[in-house]
Amino acid sequence: MLSICRVGVIGPYYNIRQQVSALESLLRKLPNADAPSRASPTRPKPRRAQQLDGEQIQRLIEGYETGATLNELAERFGIVRQTVGKILNRHGVAIRQRSLSSDQIDEAVRLYEAGWSLARVGEHMGVDDMTVQRRLAERGVTMRPRQGGMR
After folding, report:
1. By CB count within 10 A, which of 43, 54, 71, 128 is most buried?
2. How large is the angle between the packed helices 102-113 and 129-138, nearest 10 degrees?
3. Residues 68, 70, 72, 73, CA torsion sign
4. What pLDDT score was predicted for residue 49?
5. Distance CA 132, CA 122 (A)
6. Does the reported pTM lie above 0.70?
7. Which residue has the higher pLDDT, 114 or 125?
8. CA-wise closest residue to 125 among 75, 69, 76, 74
9. DSSP tag of 143
């Protein structure tokens, strides 16, 4: 019984040839300590956030008040959608809550079940794809897996 215990304890460490080979292989992959170090890769410098001047802000506000969406304005001025919203809020402009009416949700359900993507339905309805997804989920529609990915 004692010899079985000894073999069980020493067994994995008795033949260390594989472990030594693995360590030697790793050492060969390491750079030579005498070799000059390689230059670090050049990375692009972080860009400064786009700042809109007073005239651009005024045009942004006017664009929004004449019906442009946050996404359209973000693309037009080269800023992100959230920044457009912050600028409008800072200047006291009420943000439109774009949603879907009950009839539009019915139409979105029909289009989605006919095979349209959320993005295509959203574009057709003039809303974000996530708005479409939320409204379809509220109606109990089962979402299809995303194309090219797992859900």
Report:
1. 128
2. 100
3. positive
4. 61
5. 6
6. no
7. 114
8. 69
9. P
